[in-house]
Amino acid sequence: MASSPRRRRPVVGDPVDLRGMHRAISEFCEWMRMTNYAERTAETRQVYLTWFAAWLEERGITRPAEVTKPILERYQRSLYHHRKVDGRPLSFGFQYAQLVALRTFFRWAARTNRILYNPASELELPRLEHRLPQYVLSAPEVETVLSTADVGSPLGLRDRAMMEVLYSTGMRRMELIGLHLVDLDGERGTIRIRQGKGHKDRMVPVGERAVAWCDRYLAEVRPSYVVEPDEGTLFLSAEGGAFTPNRMSALVRGYVDRAQLGGKRGSCHLFRHSCATLMLEGGADIRYIQQLLGHADLSTTQIYTQVSIRRLQQVHAATHPSAVLARRRPVAELDGAGESDVEQLLLTLAAEAAEEDGEGRKRTPVPEVHRVRSPQTGRTEGRAWSWGEGDGGEGRRPETMRREAVR
Questions:
Q1: Which of 176, 312, 327, 349 gives the lowest tally of CB atoms within 10 Å of its CB?
Q2: Residues 159 and 254 sit within 8 Å (Cβ to Cβ)
Q3: Rounded-to-integer distance, Cα 100 and Cα 379, Å
Q4: Which residues are catalytic, by number?
Q5: DSSP of 186-250, one letter per residue?
Q6: pLDDT tens for residues 175-201?
């Protein structure tokens, strides 16, 4: 059974008004899809713009040409003072994501002559705090989570195989959902991730233990759940189709909660955090983890180095706790990761987790670490932070979004 496509949210406003917000938002989202933004990014921005249009309509404003900078600043203040049902304010990351969507929309409207000038060109975005991942599991804690799956039942066996793949590869939730049968090469110990974040394919190693659990799942479980015509999705839901993101998160979160790890909570991204951290502790070079996780860039001072899949497999096998069934000797002469590189990696992972599990599926900007050199002594005496804006969605490169946010 194929998963049904997501129903697009209706846009508020008068669809008959050719110069109204309804028409402008619809055409803007169509332009995003035409220029190869990710579908998820287009949907998220449509939601943000719909909320903004509803706020405008309450105040008698129905057209983009009627929006001024003071109106946008008033909307920004309303986001800051808004309180959720539980009384908490909206996070600055969520406010930031909404305002970036407005900036992009009004720049597009000005460029396509729908408005005379861009009222959002000088809109100041909120400064954001940097946060490390809240929870990272140790190797024994990961094993505790994995062991909570009842492998004696078909669905428990499937869930164990999925969590093993998440842990072994550090892949994202959407990348796991999108895997097909042809992407798993157990003989070579690799998985091809198609159209990952930023529309990029990559090949990553997968540990022997994860392959063994996948083989059991493919032999004992998947044939019972597949519905013809078989679309080749690797991990099937009980209904025979692909998982939805929220359902996948809820399933994994249930196992983490069941493990009772002293208050530690999380979902799919918890395995990604733990995979990267444990490999770093095992001595893996930051470049290999960068390629494994699919990060285009970890900091502005670090030059991306492409490494071969075979070398990456060796590093993965030597440093990941579950990569091999019998522990081999470590790979010789592994380069160590600098303190700032490790911290940058953890900050990047925290930003991804905020996007995946946070309000409105936001993208939290990532801080960039720079060494501070003393002009008197010429020695490095500390670190300074500057804030990049991330990629704002799956469909654009980070440098593209930086231009979008500062124009």
A1: 327
A2: no
A3: 38
A4: 172, 197, 269, 272, 295, 304
A5: TTTTEEEEPS-TTS--EEEE--HHHHHHHHHHHHHTHHHH--SSP--BSS--TTSSPPPHHHHHH
A6: 999 999 999 999 999 999 887 666 678
pLDDT at 199: 66
Q: What tokens were used for 304?
A: 């991306």
CB 346 within 8 A of CB 321: no
Closest among 84, 11, 110 to 52, alpha carbons compared: 11
Query: Which CATH code is given to the segment(s) 21-111?
Result: 1.10.150
In the chain, domain spans: 21-111, 139-356, 359-406
Q: Regarding the domain with residue range 139-356, which homologous superfamily does it belong to in the CATH classification? A: Intergrase catalytic core (1.10.443.10)
74 is written with which tokens? Answer: 């008033």
d(CA 79, CA 304): 37
Question: Residues 218-230: what's their mean pLDDT?
Answer: 92
Per-residue pLDDT band at 49 (split at 50, 70, 90): very high
Structure tokens at 199: 């529309």
